[in-house]
Design a protein that fits this description.
By secondary structure, this protein is an alpha+beta fold. The chain has five helices and four strands, in the order ββαββαααα. A four-stranded antiparallel sheet has the order 2-1-3-4, with helices on one face.
Length: about 150
């Protein structure tokens, strides 16, 4: 098992009922999993819990046989959430500032930016890109490149 959610419950303080209640789920190496449901049923919340952006009120999340911690999993939300005051290169490089074990160099980041078809936009700001181009930059930021 690679990811295991064990009796996970998450409650938003303002709401009486949990968004997620006693969720048990296992994802094995090589499995492709889709979470499908109506809007507002907790799909994004599950991903935020797995990535450590949110903390469950009950239960635990285990990744590779240890408790999950922020930075263990990359997550690309529906909205790109690029930092508007940073260039595309700076947005891709942000993992090197947050995670100690990421050793991506500027030169390597530029190679990746070129690979996704953004060679002319390395030093552009998100507002200068189309929606699809922004998604490609956000995708690179979410990848564990090193």
């Amino acid at each position: 098992m690679v990811v295991s959610l064990q009796n996970v419950t998450y409650v938003i303080e303002e709401h009486a009922s949990p968004v997620i209640s006693k969720l048990n789920m296992e994802i094995k190496q090589g499995e492709f999993v889709s979470i499908i449901g109506r809007s507002g049923t907790g799909k994004s919340t599950i991903f935020k819990l797995i990535t450590g952006l949110l903390t469950p009120n009950e239960g635990r999340i285990v990744i590779h046989n240890r408790l999950a911690a922020p930075g263990d999993v990359g997550f690309m939300p529906q909205k790109d959430l690029l930092l508007p005051w940073r260039t595309i290169l700076q947005n891709v490089m942000i993992a090197t500032e947050i995670q100690k074990d990421v050793t991506l160099t500027i030169e390597e980041a530029i190679v990746w930016i070129k690979r996704v078809g953004l060679k002319d936009y390395v030093y552009a700001y998100p507002k200068e890109l189309s929606g699809g181009m922004r998604q490609r930059a956000a995708f690179l930021r979410a990848l564990p490149l090193c």
